[in-house]
Design brief:
The chain has 109 residues and is an alpha+beta fold. It contains two helices and nine strands. The protein has helices at residues 7-19, 66-72; strands at 4-5, 25-32, 38-45, 53-57, 60-64, 76-82, 85-91, 95-98, 104-107. It has a six-stranded mixed β-sheet with strand order 4-5-2-3-9-8. The protein has a three-stranded mixed β-sheet with strand order 1-6-7. Strand 4 (53-57) and strand 5 (60-64) form a beta hairpin. It is globular. The two termini are 22 Å apart.
Length: 109
């Protein structure tokens, strides 16, 4: 698989999708912007597109479009719940650097 979905991320996504029966998946995309050049965007969606990578695990469904996938190849999507809060975290081996707040990253392409 080109992108890994951790058990904790799959569990949280499945919980979210159960609470939103009108949505079928969590779409993760890469957009230009943020202080380091690129940022991740998360959307609940009603349907997949033809060029989506579909990751299904334990009731969770994640969609990544082909352009975003080129920036996320071999990344790991995780869900962290600690004293600092709850968040999805992406460990991306393609990211050369990230901003101090951890929400944007830069790549060499």
């Amino acid at each position: 698989m080109t992108v890994i979905l951790s058990d904790s991320a799959a569990k949280r996504i499945a919980e979210i999708l159960i609470s939103r029966p009108d949505k079928c998946a969590l779409r993760i995309s890469v957009e230009g912007g943020g202080c380091a050049g690129f940022s991740y965007k998360y959307d609940l969606v009603e349907q997949q597109s033809n060029d989506d990578l579909v990751i299904e695990k334990n009731g969770a469904c994640v969609l990544i479009d082909s352009i975003s996938l080129s920036f996320m190849e071999k990344a790991e999507i995780n869900f962290v719940d600690n004293l600092m809060g709850q968040t999805f975290e992406i460990k991306n081996p393609n990211a050369l650097s990230s901003c101090g707040c951890g929400t944007s990253f830069s790549v060499l392409k």
